[in-house]
Amino acid sequence: SKTVSFALVYGMGVESLASRLGIAVAAAQDVMDSFMKRFPPVQRFMHECVEETRQTGYTFSICGRRRFLPEIASPNRWERSGAERKATNHPVQGSAADVMRMAMLKLDSFNLDTAYGIDMLLQVHDELVFDVPKKHQKIAEEAIREGMEHSLPRDLPVPLTVSGGFARSWDLAK
């Protein structure tokens, strides 16, 4: 289901999904159809994203960033279908980027670096890597969780949850 979910978010076609899952194209189509039947809000969301973009020429992220997609009205099928994929992808991926940006700004406002020597080092997709003195791990864990789970001006209907770990390297902390 994770592969199918990502396939939908990234606009992967049935052929690509079949290849990723190592199954026939017809079986991949059945998997996608079953997924959409089981989760009708996903199909409705995707349809609404495309229709709104057709009407306005752009799509929005959760924080209001626009992505202009004039090719959604293209007579060229390949250009149009590419824009349709982008119209469903941007609200999801763009919003994830918004959440991370807002989390980094909120965490910066906590002044963890000057108060406790806790330094934000790196962002990797939906993860942040910090250098944390051992004696301040508890403070870091609480502050980072608060900053990331409540990064937006108001909480989402579905809570954002954060997990973390401490180790000598990012790979070991996962």
Describe the overall structure:
This protein has a two-stranded antiparallel ribbon with strand order 1-2. Strands 3-4 form a two-stranded antiparallel sheet. It has helices spanning 2-9, 14-21, 25-38, 40-56, 77-109, 112-116, 137-149, 170-173; strands at 58-60, 66-68, 119-124, 127-131. 59% of the residues lie in helices and 10% in strands. The protein contains 8 helices and 4 strands. The protein is elongated. The mean pLDDT is 92. The longest helix is centred in the middle third of the chain and has 33 residues, at 77-109. A hairpin with a 2-residue loop joins strand 3 (119-124) and strand 4 (127-131). It is mainly α and 174 residues long.
- Kindly report the spatial arrangement of strands forming the biggest sheet: 1-2
Query: What is the helix fraction of residues, given as a range?
Result: 55-70%
Q: Please report which band the strand proportion falls in: under 5%, 5-15%, 15-25%, 25-35%, 35-45% or over 45%.
A: 5-15%
Number of helices: 8
Specify the overall morphology: elongated
Helix-strand sequence: HHHHEEHHEEHH
Number of strands: 4
Tell me the radius of gyration.
Answer: 20 Å
Structural class: mainly alpha
Largest sheet composition: 2 strands, antiparallel
Question: What is this structure's SSE topology?
Answer:
Elements: H1 2-9, H2 14-21, H3 25-38, H4 40-56, E1 58-60, E2 66-68, H5 77-109, H6 112-116, E3 119-124, E4 127-131, H7 137-149, H8 170-173
Antiparallel strand pairs: 1-2, 3-4
Helix pairs in contact: 2-3, 3-4, 4-5, 5-7
